[in-house]
Records
---
Amino acid sequence: MHQTFKTALVQMSMSADKTVNLRRGAEYIEQAADAGAQLVCLPELFLSPYFCQREDSALFDLAEEYPKSETISILRAVAKKTKTVVIAPIFERRAPGIYHNSAAILDADGEIAGFYRKMHIPDDPAFYEKYYFTPGDLGFKAFDTKVGRIATLICWDQWYPEGARLAALHGAVIVFYPTAIGWHPDEKERYGTAQHDAWRTVQRGHAVANGVYVAATNRTGLETDPKTGTQIDFWGQSFIADPQGVLLAEASVSSEEIIYADVDTKHLETIRRNWPFLRDRRIDAYGDITKRFIETA
């Protein structure tokens, strides 16, 4: 495992043309590799505009079978060419009526190092993901890659400490969150600052509580659903935090860009020696964590 490796997050906006989005994603990976990145993460559902703004059965046609996905095949070739580890989100068709929001971890030799299906599925106005996605059933894992042991979760997972904890317990040194999150334009002025601050704060908390690096890569731009006219203003601001929650890199709100940071496993070791949260966990006392809610008498 590398003691230090350079990580890159691609923040981009999406066109209505899947081929264009895939080509641009591949180009961004190559650009990041040219800048020295050894691991590159693309945003959630990067092959299309965020289609979950409405419930429409025709949109299931956007999905691809795994591992026969054309997207995965192309990005495996890019990973091998650039000798980079790539996190490649896809809309997965598993079987008729069973679809997942997923991500493949592609190793630097082009082989598939791991696969993750989004576990927590939201259902909010213009985020109708429960209509499209079956909850994941692969659990929270970490995967060995050329640069080290890593984990990826996806978007709504980022609000849940249990997922980050289990990824860390599986040995991940960095947890990725490919993301598609933004404001409803009519709520942005009133709630926007608080919403964004909560999103960033909770993930920095995962970094601190688990002694891991955390990286969230978002899309950017205003997307209007062509049938309903609803809009989401994606807030960008992708970031990478270290095991103390320190922001090492952060993107702008509205620009397409790549951000970079070094993941230093020696620094991680130092932080865990001095903040030994994993050592001091009371695993004998956490049995109730698996309950939905604890009733009081």
Note: Helices lie at 18-34, 70-82, 129-132, 161-169, 185-210, 265-274.
---
Amino acid sequence: MSNHKYCDGIKRRDFIRIGGITSGCLTLANYLQLAEAGQVKAGHATSGIFIDLNGGPSHIDTFDPKPDAPDGIRGDFKTIPTSISGVQISEHLPKMAQALDKYVIVRGVSHTLAAHRLGSEYVNTGSRPLASLEYPGYGAVVCKERAVENDIPPFVAIPSGGQRSGFLGIQYAPMNTAASPQQGSPFNVRGISLGAGVTVEQLDRRQNLLKDLDTKFASMDGHDQLLTGLDRFSDKAFSMLSSERARLAFDISKESPAFSAPFGPDPFEQSCLLAVRLIESGVRFVSLSVGGWDNHTDIFNNLSKKLLPKLDGGVSALLNGLEQKGLLSSTSVMVTGEFGRTPKINTRATLGGRDHYPRCMFMLMAGGKIRGGQVIGASDATGAGPANDAIKPDDVAASFYHNLGIDHKQEFQTETGRPITLVREGNIIPQLFS
């Protein structure tokens, strides 16, 4: 996917790299050195998918339209009915409109962080960011709580994303593919595919050499987090490199034409296809990232011609594909940006846009025990704020974890032994499960 530049001048690519390895955002090569799965814990869904709409999508022009609002607020788009009576969404989301029975629209989600980085950290963890602590993303927690076989990566980010391991440690960081799949082509992830004529036998000899080299570092501090991860590198990397299962998990060209057909050619839609295949192959958590939503200008052209078609095609095909493979009931899905956009269309440019607006946004939830076909929460008549009690990102996070059978109030410990509550202030939204 292309790199998108935020309005504050930070490129999406650079934003993801901020903090480097200490923040738990890893390249594939680093991931193979450091990743390790955690322990199984019984629950509802057993796997998760997080779709990050970087930049902040407009709620009014997507899943929370205001057709009766005044000019300058309602926007250029008409609304269309969905498969659920009385619920309407943007005309540019026809496939999502027909798939509403499989997901829930959460409206009137509200917070106060209008900066991209802070808002992204908030929705990727469910806890309001602190300067003194980095909370783990959903994928890191799921990997800690859910075991996975050694020859398959537990947590994959396509192509990268805002999910980090935080205080849980870099062994729970995602494996970034660093690229997006292309329609009809095998997706060769560097470090998993055996290229350049390398055979498994040659790899075995190199594995033995690595073990010999590891003994040279035996006198170093065994409690250092990086060294602990490096100690695990050889076995994990060898298992994945020599595993046909791992290589096939990333090969979307192996999917039948009938199953692949609903996933369009856009890299995001193909990434949704890959996400379904990875979950089916045993990957515990997949995060997807699609940018371009920071539309301060020309918002209606950008949405109608570029962003909404691929969101519509990708997410609807993902939900339908999970259901077709019998995976929707075991996969918890969340779709969100870091905030919404202002109700009032700005006039700073000839082609109008909307600005950052955390006071009102939408999130989508699906899978597991979540009952699809609902709208939960509401915004006021102009989309300026919640109509009633606000739903916080913390509440959605608590519900996402609950759907996975993970107690959001449990305590984890930092490397220094400090006890930290997973989601500090969230409450489960009971309507999601009723």
Note: The CA atoms of residues 301 and 351 lie 9 Å apart.
---
Amino acid sequence: MHVRILLLLAMRNLRRQMRRTLLTSAVMVLGGALLIFSFSLGDGSHENWIDSGIRTSSGHVTVEQPAFRVSSKIEDRLTAALRAQAEQALAMADVANEVVAVSSRLRIGALASSAAGARPAQVFAVDPAAEAEFSTLDDQVVEGRYLEPDDRLAAYIGAGLASSLELRIGSRLVVQAQDTEQEIAAQLLRVVGIFSNGVPEVDQAVVHIPLATAGEWLGSGQDVTNVGVVLSGSHAVGPVVSHLETTLAESVIRGDVRVMDWREANPALAAAIAIDDFGNYLVFGILFLIIAFGIVNTVLMSVLHRHREFGVLQALGLTPGQTGAIVLVEGLTLTAVSGFIGVTLGLVGTWYLLSNGLDMSALVGEEMTFSGVVIDPVIVPLFRVARIVQVVAFILTIGAIASVYPALRAARIDVAEAMKFER
């Protein structure tokens, strides 16, 4: 009964000061809607950055020999047996639904040369069918075609490398690198396709060749330097990493294998996303600090104008704690209702207006480069339950903190003083 009476008294005051209540509520609704709009677009853009970044590097998750990340030497590679074990682990029912593509690659530094000169290159020996599912390079053809499963001495090269070595479709080039016997080995290749990625470091250095060709050229057989995995989304990274570490536990303990997520493999991209997230938190922290002062003002003004009322209530039997509770309930109710409406409007409005994505190409052009990665300029909002809960919790926390001081003021009212005259 006491709780019911306290709630009724709190609701009555919010109704009595309807104009003030609506003005404060409108600010909170706008703030909540902006939070959802900003964070859903931010999460969508971050997922876009991650997807673009992992497809041009080593995937959401990569399995490597621990020393390869530092040495980049062919001797620090995964054996065919470890490669098969990793691929089998990714085909298990526990994670198969989250796995979109798996590509086993042999990456080596090489010297590419033609009659026009020589340039350093990064040679990726791949399974053409698997790589077409994993990477986006096969969609960036400007001349010729991507590698096919029956290709043998074929090369798919960047436009920058083709220009510097004066190569065209059908041209020959020679790549030289250290083989598994630590001898310099050369391989003659014929250009079947030229791509343009938009990132100079990729266009001027990357060469894709069939994995079988590299196995014969370097004596590596079916060995690879990493097994890369593309998942349905970054949310699946943790479970897949845990699954691989458990399945490959013996090899991990021996130091033959290391399982890394995209943050370890691409720290520059991870840092860029963290900085962008911090900027969002900072801006909206300032916004809600201003809103918090608005809540304090609304609730405190109601306290200052109700000294006599609170004095009467305490004279009739309310304790100071119950008086403060009324004020606290007013602030929390105002915050909760406004926050719920704001979050709902933010979700509905963002989905309705941007369900097909926000095209930023008019501002950034058809290709946007970020942290060495070409990003799709169309940003699709991403709605996450965890993020919505985070926003609601943030709004409620701000409301609770902003209501504490007015509640303390109400609880400390002197009854005798309050009954003397109307304030």
Note: The chain has a mean pLDDT of 85.
---
Amino acid sequence: MIISNADKEQLWQAYRQRRPLRVPVHLATTDRVYILDPSYNRDGLGYPEVFERAEGMLRAQLRWQETVRSHHHQYCDLPAGLPDAWSVGIQFQNVYEAWFFGCPVRIEPGQVPDTRPILTDDNKRAVFDIDISRPFARDPFKRGFEFTARMSELARNMEHLGRPVEVQPYLPGGTDGPLTVAANLRGSAFLTDLYADPDYADEVLAFVTEAAILRAQAVDALRTTPRTSIGLADDMLQAISTEMFVERVLPHHRRYYDALDPQHTLPRSMHLCGDATRHFATLVRELGVTSFDTGFPVDFGALRRELGPDVEILGGVEVSLLLHGTPQQVYDRARAILTSGVLEGGRFVLRDANNLPPCVPMDNLAAMYRAAFDFGTY
């Protein structure tokens, strides 16, 4: 199937206008699909160089975009082929918030960067000594702005495959969510804190949330156009009950959304990997979330029936199956999802669930894409 970029854009426009022609297919990738796949990364570029040198970051972003536009995007509804200009920016994976609070970054062979917890029972209040009032004065955000300036210098007269290179402003406004970041800082002990030391747990969640709000507000002040939506993630919600979520974590989610969207005029979205669908109805009812990005084996039909036709759901074939399964297995799983009833209302996007790993066979991506044509047409 060869679909032009113009046809892909028309498909997305129809979807956004609630007149879908077919289920759009999205693939979420980062530079790891290039860096950690030896069939593409033949010159040994690694995360130490990417995280430590602006030149390495620029090279990684260009090679990543070249890779996905030449290969992966042939099997989804994102632009394929050479662009008019390469548009690159900063990627610090999912370590940026824990890194900001002082967690050391670990880079293991064959893995994306990670961090380790730093708050033990003996120093668990040390986090409150961190100055969160100037979010851009600490790494990784300080480094992100420095890298952006250096990358802009390098790109000024640069061409990659005959196309100019544009470096986008660094706008690190997202958050991995208060419970997830608290667990990054304290490890699994924070789940015990929720029960055994709830006052301390609430202090940490409030502090982490305040830091995320201050950073997002600082980023908003740099934007040339106002934000058009507001999103939040919190993958560690999979580890707690809905009762615990409502009592301990939901107030911090509400505070984040309301601080950035006090009039509740912007669409609100939530990214939740893991087995967290038991919380979705609460998030819709209490916070007005209208879009969910999933990343776990989900009963999509049941989820659609629970949430109704107007809530957007993004999800699809699990990444483990995309990586290790056969094309037929991928096709069958995509078919089961698309015929589950999740298409009701025209608010479903088929995608990897969640974030494409390196080394996924192109035949498997082609199988998922083909299923969207066979079973995802309205």
Note: The longest helix spans residues 198-220.
